[in-house]
Amino acid sequence: MTQRILVVLGAPNSLTGELSDIAKQRLHACMDLYQEGDLILCTGGWGTHFNQSNKPHAYYTRNYLLAKGIPASAFLELALSSHTVDDAVRAKALIVPYPDCELIIVTSDFHQERVQLIFREILAGVNLTVVTSKTILPDAQLQQLKAHEQKAIEGILENGLYY
Q1: 98-153 pLDDT, tens per residue?
Q2: Residue 143: how many other CB atoms lie within 10 Å
Q3: Domain 3-159 class?
Q4: Which phi and psi (to 5°) does residue 103 adopt?
Q5: pTM value?
Q6: Where are the beta strands (DSSP E) in 17-100?
Q7: Which residues are 128's β-sheet partners?
Q8: Phi–psi pair at 6, nearest 5 degrees
Q9: What is the pLDDT of residue 101?
Q10: Tally: H helices and E strands in the chain
Q11: Domain residues of the chain, as ranges?
């Protein structure tokens, strides 16, 4: 039987661990997808661009989902990653006990293309789907994120992945 694993990619949180709107949008997408028997893998450790608190980002996302009623038994070990390539590398290591799994990567709409490039290369041969949450931000802020993503994608296409 195929094991569904929802992989929720990290997003910013404050110094006190308060999750950003982007993080919450991803978590709500995860909750909408979650079915009894699914496993959830929360990603995110520390990084200057998303988390400088004293606990890993995945700690906050796991606690958020627990508070919303997801059972503790649904969670895999936290993937303490620092960027999207690291998310894929750490996820690959954590899914080894589930050779017949379906990965559902949950990210934001602006991040989808880069996630697909990275996860499909690092997890080649794994049945995976990328599901996105709609990003609700002021237009100027969303355009900055899209520009960052485009630059990162160009770097991958020109230089490949480094992991």
Answers
A1: 999 999 999 999 999 999 999 999 999 999 999 999 999 999 999 999 999 999 99
A2: 12
A3: alpha beta
A4: -90, 130
A5: 0.95
A6: 39-42
A7: 103
A8: -90, 120
A9: 97
A10: 5, 4
A11: 3-159
